[in-house]
Amino acid sequence: MGRTRQNGRLRERRATLFWLVVLVLAAGGWLWYAYGRPDARPPGATASSSPSARLTGPPAGAQQVRVDFPLDGDSLQVTADQPGPVIDITDPVQLRLLGIDAPELHGADGTPQCWAQTALAELRKLAPPGARLWLLPDSQRLDPYGRRLVYAWTADGRFVNGELAARGAVRELAIRPNLAHQQDLHDAVEQARTQRRGLWGSCVER
Length: 206
Fold this sequence. Notes:
The protein has 206 residues and is α+β, with helices and mostly antiparallel strands. It is built from 5 helices and 7 strands. It has helices spanning 2-36, 116-126, 160-166, 182-194, 199-202; strands spanning 63-72, 75-79, 93-97, 100-101, 132-136, 148-154, 171-172. Strands 1-2-3-6-5 form a 5-stranded mixed beta barrel. It has a two-stranded antiparallel ribbon with strand order 4-7. The relative contact order is 0.16. The model is unreliable at 29-53 (pLDDT under 50).
């Protein structure tokens, strides 16, 4: 009788140990799935894929402007309240975001290229009409079309050029000597490409 009870207690201990091991393995698997994967984010992290896209506030010395409207996925029209270091007039001007290149709304055949409309929509989310942006230039101030060449940040510090790259809305366009943020933009584009975000997962030309 005593041996039977002893065997019963041993079976109970083994069963308890078995389920403890199962629970530990399940918890470990869930933690890996939630936070250990390459594309996972820790609790409270933002969706930024580039260090320059983190919420840090507008950079020192940047000029504030008001968005009139986006023109396409990498350019927009803005108006400065007063002349500043980037825009020296208070008339509406066009901006071209540095380091990136969005698909064309009017391609060679006159129709939008793949992801062009979505890239425009992504820029409109970051910089809707009436919103405020903060601008900094690089070495060159104007492109051949007379647009101001800029890096732009939102009021809460999102780096617009980097956000578009991280979302897969644009390709990289590195043109010397305007390379102040190019490493961050390159990294964001490569991560979007690897994870097939945006145009990298939807457009034939990759």
